[in-house]
Amino acid sequence: xxxxxxxxxxxxxxxxxxxxxxxxxxxxxxVAAEPADNPIIYVNPAFVKMTGYPEQxxxxxxxxxxxxxxxxxxVLQELCAALREQRECRVVLRSYRKDxxxxxxxxxxxxxxxxxxxxxHFIGILSDITEHTSYAARLTQLASYDPVTQxxxxxxxxxxxxxxxxxxRRSGHKIxxxxxxxxxxxxINDTLGHSLGDxxxxxxxxxxxxxxxxxxxxxxxxxxxxxxxxxxxxWNEQVAKVARKIQGALAPGLKLEEQEVFVTASIxxxxxxxxxxxxxxxxxxxxxxxxxxxxxxxNEFCFYEAEMNAxxxxxxxxxxxxxxxxxxxxxxxxxxxxxxxxxxxTLGVEALLRWRHPKHGLVAPAEFVPLAEESGLIVPIGxxxxxxxxxxxxxxxxxGLQPLRMAVNLSVAQFEQPDFxxxxxxxxxxxxxxPDCLELEITESLLMKDVNTTVAVLRTLKEMGVKLAIDDxxxxxxxxxxxxxxxxxxxxxxxxxxxxxxxxPDDAAIALAVIAMAHSMNLRVVAEGVETDxxxxxxxxxxxxxxxxxxxxxxxPAGEAKHWLEEHGRRELRREAPExxxxxxxxxxxxxxxxxxxxxxxRRDGYRVLTAANGRAGLELLTGYAVxxxxxxxxxxxxxxxEFLKRVRKLYPGAVRIALSGYGELDDLxxxxxxxxxxxxxxxxxxxxxxxxxxxxxxxxxxLHPLQHRLQ
Length: 712
Ligand code: C2E
Ligand code: MG
Ligand code: MG
Prior knowledge:
The protein is of the alpha/beta class.
């Protein structure tokens, strides 16, 4: 039977492909993506015809053999860089046939990724352009200009920069080198496809050209990097103005085949002669400034400063060390328990990454995770974390611990890997961990990316049975509407809101709103960073579901975590609940004599009495008890009575407030009435009968106004 064009699955047969390749006019070679020498694996008959070498003499050799002795061709740099960076490139080379004769060939190199996206081969397409009538002109064009944007390429730019430096050295003029990098271009390119990516670069080139003056130089260094050279300016502010103008010119949306795309650029700026005496130094320093601009957030520009260099070198060394940290076994996971608030029962642990650096000791993730994210190293590191955490969870189960939820933090870059869900499935099956024992913690920043893709990936994970949580909730800007669409199980309230939850009404309000909202969407709420009794009581009274924090345990290495879990995992830790039905009054006064006296009197009257020597202590006590009446002195150091009662009013609107004062300034009295809405004001020295009277009325009032209790 003749070759059928397609099989049942719509695939072309390998034989047919070979025929197509063999019949082509262009020389084709397949090269292995091996960093050392990129050996040729296959060449087609057109290649054999073009070069005069039979296939068996070529296979196994590096393609450089075609260059004969002529090894110092400038474009080789570009070719080597493309191989190293695994990207496509087009170069024109002087090559030599088997008989030694010269031929000019245009080589287009394309990386070939495997299913997982790893580049395994390159395809090289050669065309013999020796006969081309205008080849000399074409060569100059190809060698000096970028084929996509028609702007000067790196080679030409470097030479233009060199000339500019020589010129300005003589004239005493200054040069500004602006290095521009499009933010998130890779993502745009991956989503839109390369041809739209090229169209985008062309549109950017046009916009840049239009906003520069005739004497300025614009070029494309490669990828998404552009360079602008400015001469004839005097003040840095003029350069800053150009940078702002460029950013302004790029801001409006671009229409590419019906899709609207928004591009922003980060810009690093170096100045001649201040930041370097030659072109290469200027480029290097602009690059350092660019890095800084990106670190500040996108769409920023930044001038180079000398001390950046030292930091850049340190950063580079750190990045280099980090690159080896995995092979050298320097990474470790610590585990921090997560508990249910109601019964203080352990439900799970969160895996937290640590780096045991040979020189710097144990390094916290805040110091290296951002670096790993910038460099892409977070992808292999994150995979290691996921695998190690899942394996650990399984091991603990096998050692007899109750099955726990293992929470693992994810970076955006990991999530954006095309086969991320498959990776999770593979790790679960390799380690044997049940999917519902794994929880992935994602951050709000991920939610601000491409909505549809994010939702689709999350749904797939959810269908696999994996649990999902949003970490550091409250620090980003995710819309509630959006949240509704996500298959999320848990929200983690960021530590920054928990820290002052018992004393700062604003933080408390945010936490309460998050809890209420989450519950209305059937999500559970985890409070992060619980350190004190007061925070714990506050959260418990307000229906927060789970918590995690130093109050129970710091993150521990695996061995210690196991001991902790064995000790605390099974039993419930909860102490006796406060006797909430007693009539309770809180007394706050910095005068210990008065505190003692009032406490004795009111105890005898049958009230439960809590005392505090200052406002902060008072607020902390309030978290743990149902208090109906608060009595506070007005004049106290640090937090005065007005401030204290104001906070009580916001945090516990149901608690009836009574103020005590020896001498009253009119201003304070007005504030007390307007801002603290006090129920009664008692003058010192206190008449005990008046106090008893006031208290009775206060409790009665409290009982008669149940609506006021809704936040308690
Ligand atoms: P996170 O996921 O919000 O983790 C909680 C952080 O709060 C941890 O810091 C933990 O040690 C700390 N913490 C917990 N309880 C308390 C407390 O009561 N008081 C205080 N002051 N801190 C508490 P850590 O381990 O330094 O991790 C910092 C961040 O680094 C994590 O924040 C997470 O965003 C990131 N990270 C950690 N491990 C990984 C990882 O494997 N992959 C990725 N992508 N990021 C990770
Ligand atoms: Mg986390
Ligand atoms: Mg967090």
